[in-house]
Amino acid sequence: MMPYLLSLGAGILVGVLYAFLGVRSPAPPTIALIGLLGMLVGEQAVPVVKRLIAGQPVLAFIQNDCARHILGPQAGNAAAPDAANPPAPAADAPPRGRA
Question: Which of 6, 14, 84, 99 would you label with 28, given CA atoms 20 to 30 Å apart?
Answer without folding.
Answer: 6
